[in-house]
C-alpha cells in the first residue's frame, strides 16, 4: 500500500486562492513524478471546471460517493475519477448537487468521516490526495479535516485577511483532539502578494503568527491566474511567474514529506 499523504486546502474566507493552489500544487507535484488525486469538495465546482470537467451520463461525482457511504451501498470510485490534462493528475469532480450534502449528512451516522471512509476503503494508489475545500466551516470542511493528515491555508495578502483564521485553527485543533489526532498544519501560504504596504504588512503579521509554518514561497498577484482558469490550463504547465512560484511551493511540500520516494 502506498503511503498516501492527504492534504486539505482550506480557508473559510472566499476567493483567497484555495482552488488555484489545489490545481497548481497538484500539477506541480505531478510534474515531479508523483501520482496525485485532486478532490473537489466544493458545490461551486470551480476545481472541476478549471480542469475542464464535462458532465457525462456514466460519470459520478463526489456527491454520489458520499451518498453511497451514507446509505451503506456499493460504489465504484473509479467511475468518479477523471484524468486531467496534467501528467499524473486525476480528479474527482463536484457540482452544485453537492450543496445537498449538508442535508443528507445531517441524518448520517458519524457524518464527519464519510469522505475518510471513501478513501480508506478504496486503498488508492496515489502519493498525494489534495482536497479543495469550500469557503465554509460546515460539515464538508469537517469531512476534509477528518480525512486529511495535513492542512494548507492560503491567505490572501489583503486587508482583513487574517479575520477568521483563528476560528479555522480552533476547528482544526478540535478535530485533532477528537476524530483525527494525526492532523497537522502543513503551513500557511500567502497569495496574491504585490508591492503595496498592505501586502507587506500581512506578510509580516503572518510571519509573526506562524513563524516557520509560513511557507517561504509567496504567490504573487497576477492576471495569469484568472487567464489560466479561463483556458483550463494549470499555470505550472507553461512558462510564467506564478507557475514557477507554485513549483517552488510544491518543492517545499515534497521536501517536508521526504519519506515519499519517487516512483
Ligand atoms: P472560493 O472560496 O470561492 O472557493 P478560492 O479560495 O478557491 O475561492 P480561487 O478560486 O483560487 O479562490 O481564486 C479566486 C479568484 O482569484 C479567481 O478568479 C482566481 O483566478 C483569482 N486568483 C487566484 N490566485 C490569484 C493570483 N495569484 N493572482 C491574481 N488572481 C488570482
Ligand atoms: Mg475554490
List the helices and strands and how they pair.
Layout: E1 5-9, H1 18-31, E2 36-41, H2 46-50, H3 62-70, E3 82-83, E4 89-92, H4 101-106, H5 114-122, E5 128-133, H6 139-147, E6 150-156, H7 165-177, E7 184-191, H8 197-210, H9 224-231, H10 241-256
Parallel strand pairs: 1-5, 1-6, 2-4, 2-5, 6-7
Antiparallel strand pairs: 3-4
Bound molecules: adenosine-5'-triphosphate (ATP) and magnesium ion.
The site of magnesium ion has 5 residues, from helix 1.
N-to-C terminal Cα separation, in Å?
A: 13 Å
Which strands sit side by side, in order, in the main sheet? 3-4-2-5-1-6-7
Order of helices and strands: EHEHHEEHHEHEHEHHH
The beta-strand count equals 7
- In DSSP terms (H or I, runs of 4 or more residues), the helix count works out at 10
Please state the average pLDDT score.
93
CA radius of gyration is: 17 Å
Largest beta-sheet details: 7 strands, mixed
Explained architecture:
- This protein has 263 residues and is α/β, with parallel strands linked by helices.
- The chain contains ten helices and seven strands.
- A seven-stranded mixed sheet has the order 3-4-2-5-1-6-7, sandwiched between helices.
- A hairpin with a 5-residue loop joins β3 and β4.
- α1 crosses α10 and α3 packs across α5.
- The longest helix has 16 residues.
- The two termini are 13 Å apart.
- The relative contact order is 0.20.
- The chain binds adenosine-5'-triphosphate (ATP) and magnesium ion (MG).
- Adenosine-5'-triphosphate binds next to α1 and α9.
Amino acid at each position: 500500500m502506498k503511503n498516501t499523504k492527504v492534504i486539505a486546502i482550506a480557508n473559510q474566507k472566499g476567493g483567497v486562492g484555495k482552488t488555484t493552489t489545489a490545481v497548481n500544487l497538484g500539477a506541480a507535484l505531478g510534474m515531479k513524478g508523483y501520482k496525485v488525486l485532486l478532490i473537489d469538495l466544493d458545490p461551486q465546482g470551480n476545481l472541476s471546471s478549471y480542469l475542464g470537467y464535462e458532465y457525462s451520463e456514466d460519470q459520478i461525482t463526489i456527491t454520489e460517493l458520499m451518498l453511497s457511504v451514507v446509505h451503506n451501498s456499493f460504489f465504484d470510485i473509479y467511475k468518479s475519477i477523471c484524468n486531467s490534462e496534467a501528467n499524473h493528475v486525476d480528479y474527482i469532480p463536484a457540482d452544485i448537487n453537492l450543496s445537498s450534502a449538508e442535508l443528507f449528512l445531517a441524518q448520517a451516522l458519524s457524518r464527519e468521516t464519510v469522505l475518510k471512509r471513501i478513501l480508506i476503503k478504496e486503498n488508492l494508489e496515489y502519493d498525494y490526495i489534495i482536497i479543495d475545500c469550500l469557503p465554509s466551516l460546515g460539515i464538508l470542511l469537517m469531512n476534509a479535516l477528518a480525512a486529511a493528515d495535513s492542512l494548507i491555508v492560503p491567505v490572501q495578502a489583503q486587508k482583513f485577511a487574517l479575520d477568521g483564521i483563528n476560528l479555522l485553527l480552533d476547528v482544526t485543533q478540535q478535530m485533532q483532539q477528537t476524530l483525527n489526532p494525526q492532523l497537522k498544519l502543513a503551513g500557511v501560504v500567502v497569495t496574491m502578494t504585490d508591492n503595496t504596504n498592505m501586502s507587506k504588512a500581512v506578510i509580516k503579521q503572518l510571519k509573526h503568527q506562524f513563524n516557520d509554518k509560513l511557507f517561504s514561497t509567496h504567490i504573487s498577484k497576477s492576471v495569469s491566474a484568472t487567464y489560466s482558469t479561463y483556458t483550463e490550463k494549470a499555470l505550472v504547465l507553461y512558462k510564467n511567474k506564478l507557475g514557477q512560484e507554485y513549483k517552488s511551493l510544491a518543492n517545499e511540500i515534497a521536501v517536508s514529506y521526504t519519506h515519499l520516494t519517487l516512483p
